[in-house]
Amino acid sequence: MKRVGVLTGGGDCPGLNAVIRAVARRCFSRGYAVVGVADGWRGLVENDLEPLTAREVSGILPRGGTIIGTSRTNPYKIDGGVDRVLRHFAEAGLDALVAIGGEDTLGVAARLFAEQELPVVGVPKTIDNDLSATDYTFGFDTAVSIATEAIDRLHTTAESHNRVMVVEVMGRHTGWIAVMSGIAGGADVILIPEQPVSVEFACAELRKRHERGKSFSIVVVSEGYKLTFDSGEEREITQAPELDEFGHVRLGGVGEQLAHEIEQRTGFETRVTVLGHVQRGGSPTARDRVLATRYGLKAADLVHEGNFGRMAALHGDAIVDVSLAEATAELKTVPPEWYDVARAFFG
Ligand code: F6P
What we know:
This protein is about 40% helix and about 20% strand.
């Protein structure tokens, strides 16, 4: 009988509980015990572990958030953090760990596997969809659906008031949520970090549209887009100067400044909506539930096979495994072809 730890790290995201349930169910069917690690890597640093039984994982498939909690704790940034992780892992009698997370959580997992031989497997989570080596992360589809619904709703109020509506979405340094929800919602301009078109370009597209007789527009901007001007000036908008334990700035606020620039330059009345954490909350879509479930079963199978240092991944329609090192080596950015699809509907 094996004892398998499960942790969820980084920003929460719809589908985490579906993965936990699938890992647990497959482990139980093999007679393995499952242990929940509280709040990501913090639980292993501070020895905060609780057994997960069939009771705890029952009824959680549609629930948002994570029943075992999450945090942005980085054991490599804590004095003796890595030693404590290894000690508590051994003391709990764990044979394997399933780490469910994005580039930060899985980056730690990749390092612990490579440098300490920790028997760990990964599951790719993030609403940002910015993890390499997998076509999609779970949680992304739900975030895109929430953003698309918001854009649909903003259309009717924009049209009634003859306004430009700026919608700021999450995504950190990639524009996946902006591009997908913008295409799905029929946005008139989409601004993302990977394609830094200028504010002047955006305004020209809006003027063009209004000259065609339209009296309202929708602009989707990704939080990581730097306000870019034809002069070459670039402005990254952040909420706080401090970096988190993984060296990230807290993004947010570009929508407000963009709306101001648009109104000043075009004279069109402009309003802004920041979707924020609403994109991460609530129940996962059916697609995310299914993807999360398949990832969870794969992770449990990798544990059973002793195939550590690997991450469950989606390639086309197949669930495969890739190395954690490969998955966390670089961010998966939006390729130009995707932006071209969006751009065909600008103006
Ligand atoms: O990585 C997911 C994400 O929601 C990003 O899109 C966003 O920049 C960040 O997390 C927000 O982090 P926090 O929840 O710590 O404010």
